[in-house]
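Retry 2 of 3 after timeout on previous attempt. Resubmitting structure tokens to design endpoint.
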């Protein structure tokens, strides 16, 4: 007798905060060994911590992809090396682009009250992303958001992923991802007020 039951693949196991923290700690150790404070000159001088943090979040995303069967091997040293090179190029590009605009471009920066969307038409996109990423890094260092929250924010706000896609990658329900984004936005708003009172989030 023919069995018409369709095969349904098992759902991906949720990625725990402990999993992400463990990988982030390893990547942080490797990044600090490869890019020490004060080792860069020119326009990138003093940006070593931000470059490392961006690279760590990028590498964490690649690690998440590996957890869901994406092709390729997960090699932490290789991943962080590539991420650091890319991060340096990104920061250099942003610094050069920032020099083309006056500070006035940043003073009216706004982030929508909507829990998921950033309204790019309200302000220069480069201004929003630069500021948002900088304050996101400060929140991570301060401990006001977790590595998991930062990875989710990167997926949605920087990579343009949907809530559903981020939920699938993390092995969580979309509502849980929405809660994480709300935590990030609250932490970023609070940090922005102490960083520069002219910014309103």
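Retry 2 succeeded. Sequence:
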């Amino acid at each position: 007798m023919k069995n018409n039951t369709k095969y349904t693949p098992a759902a991906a196991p949720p990625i725990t905060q402990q999993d992400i923290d463990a990988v982030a700690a390893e990547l942080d150790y490797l990044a600090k060994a490869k890019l020490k404070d004060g080792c860069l000159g020119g326009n990138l001088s003093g940006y070593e911590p931000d470059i490392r943090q961006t690279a760590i979040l990028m590498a964490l995303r690649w690690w998440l992809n590996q957890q869901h069967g994406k092709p390729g091997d997960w090699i932490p040293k290789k991943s962080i090396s590539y991420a650091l090179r890319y991060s340096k190029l990104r920061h250099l590009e942003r610094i050069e682009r920032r020099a083309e605009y006056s500070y006035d471009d940043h003073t009216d920066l706004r982030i929508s009250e909507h829990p998921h969307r950033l309204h790019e038409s309200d302000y220069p996109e480069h201004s929003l992303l630069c500021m948002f990423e900088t304050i996101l890094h400060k929140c991570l260092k301060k401990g006001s958001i977790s590595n998991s929250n930062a990875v989710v924010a990167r997926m949605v706000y920087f990579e343009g992923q949907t809530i559903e896609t981020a939920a699938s990658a993390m092995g969580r329900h979309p509502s849980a991802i929405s809660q994480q984004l709300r935590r990030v936005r609250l932490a970023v708003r609070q940090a922005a007020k102490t960083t520069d009172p002219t910014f309103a989030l």
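Attempt log closed. The chain has two domains: 16-100, 105-201.
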